[in-house]
Automatic annotation (TrEMBL):
<keyword id="KW-1133">Transmembrane helix</keyword>
<dbReference type="InterPro" id="IPR022764">
    <property type="entry name" value="Peptidase_S54_rhomboid_dom"/>
</dbReference>
<dbReference type="Pfam" id="PF01694">
    <property type="entry name" value="Rhomboid"/>
</dbReference>
<feature type="domain" description="Peptidase S54 rhomboid">
    <location>
        <begin position="63"/>
        <end position="206"/>
    </location>
</feature>
<dbReference type="InterPro" id="IPR035952">
    <property type="entry name" value="Rhomboid-like_sf"/>
</dbReference>
<feature type="transmembrane region" description="Helical">
    <location>
        <begin position="31"/>
        <end position="50"/>
    </location>
</feature>
<keyword id="KW-0812">Transmembrane</keyword>
<feature type="transmembrane region" description="Helical">
    <location>
        <begin position="103"/>
        <end position="122"/>
    </location>
</feature>
<protein>
    <recommendedName>
        <fullName>Peptidase S54 rhomboid domain-containing protein</fullName>
    </recommendedName>
</protein>
<dbReference type="InterPro" id="IPR003903">
    <property type="entry name" value="UIM_dom"/>
</dbReference>
<feature type="compositionally biased region" description="Basic and acidic residues">
    <location>
        <begin position="300"/>
        <end position="316"/>
    </location>
</feature>
<feature type="region of interest" description="Disordered">
    <location>
        <begin position="282"/>
        <end position="316"/>
    </location>
</feature>
<feature type="transmembrane region" description="Helical">
    <location>
        <begin position="181"/>
        <end position="205"/>
    </location>
</feature>
<keyword id="KW-0472">Membrane</keyword>
Length: 316
């Protein structure tokens, strides 16, 4: 099949603007590679969206297992890409510094695969329990399930704090659950099962056996939560790059230095940025005919048929 590349759009421009405000040299390598891969596949998708989304019917019943790899890396539209990758930028800077680049890459790959597997299990269970076969045809695409897993991990690494969800302070302990409900209240077309799958995978890592299983599967690189060997250093503009830093004169010692992210977030928290972007997206989509669903990655069978007729996602 011939696949047509997508053009540059508002959401993509906003994402690139945010990345350049941070500075490419200041984004950790695995985070930067993840951003670059998602942007590249948005502009040059390997397959049409309907051939890369994940569902029980397509993946399990028709044995199209490559969708487990393709679905997290493809996005429905530019706003979907922007929301996910802006969140990935913020989480990646935090977590890759803590975990180390090699372990963080391992976490990203593992979370991407497991989130898809758990999503399939949830949809299959719902279809069987409710005797509703349409759940097996729900097709999911996007990186947001992985981001929910990373949010659980990030909140576990930084306990005791509060985040802003739709203007209300919420403890980190409950933030993922509140955001899960808030996103589906604001944008009902999103995949609840996909986001829930990400939360469950994150909990499997932080409170379950997943981390130990991952460590037992590889002796190449252990998890280094403190990640002392590489620290950011500052100038008046914010981050200037990386340097080896051992505050107590020995490898293995760590000093948690407060970080100032306001230089590239205009003083907004991640949740406030997401809320603002959601409002902008809904307003933008309200002005576009035959627009794709709001943030998230659920495509109903009816929407799939409509998109094929409108050639929204080129399948030729």
């Amino acid at each position: 099949m011939h696949r047509r590349s997508r053009g540059v759009s508002i959401g993509l421009l906003l994402l690139l603007s945010q990345i350049f405000q941070v500075g490419i040299n200041n984004v950790p390598p695995v985070t930067l590679a993840t951003l670059a891969l998602n942007i590249w596949l948005f502009l040059n998708p390997l397959k049409p969206l309907l051939s890369s989304c994940l569902s029980v019917e397509k993946c399990y019943q028709q044995k199209d297992w490559q969708r487990l790899l393709l679905s997290p890396l493809h996005h429905a539209d530019d706003w979907h890409l922007y929301f996910n990758m802006a969140s990935m930028l913020w989480k990646g800077i935090h977590l890759e510094r803590r975990l180390g680049s090699r372990w963080f890459a391992y976490v990203i790959v593992t979370f991407s695969l497991l989130t898809g597997v758990v999503y399939l299990f949830l949809e299959f269970a719902l279809a069987e329990f409710l005797n509703e076969p349409d759940f097996k045809r729900n097709c999911a695409v996007g990186f947001s399930g992985v981001l929910f897993a990373l949010k659980v991990l990030n909140n576990h690494c930084c306990p005791g704090g509060f985040v802003n969800v739709l203007g209300f302070p919420v403890s980190n302990r409950f933030a993922c659950w509140v955001e899960l409900l808030a996103i589906h209240f604001i944008s009902p077309g999103t995949s609840f099962a996909g986001h829930l799958a990400g939360i469950l995978v994150g909990l499997m890592y932080t409170h379950g056996p997943l981390k130990k299983i991952m460590e037992s599967c590889t002796g190449i690189f252990p998890s280094n939560i403190d990640y002392p060997g590489q620290q950011y250093y500052f100038n008046s503009s914010g981050y200037s790059g990386y340097q080896d830093y051992y505050p107590y004169g020995a490898r293995g010692a760590y000093e948690d230095v407060p970080r100032n992210y306001d230089t590239y977030t205009a003083g907004l928290s991640e949740e406030e940025q997401l809320e603002r972007a959601l409002r902008a997206s809904l307003l933008d989509q309200g002005n576009r005919r035959s627009s794709p669903p709001a943030y998230g990655f659920r495509l109903s069978p009816e929407e799939e048929m409509r998109r094929q007729r409108l050639h929204r996602f080129d399948s030729q």
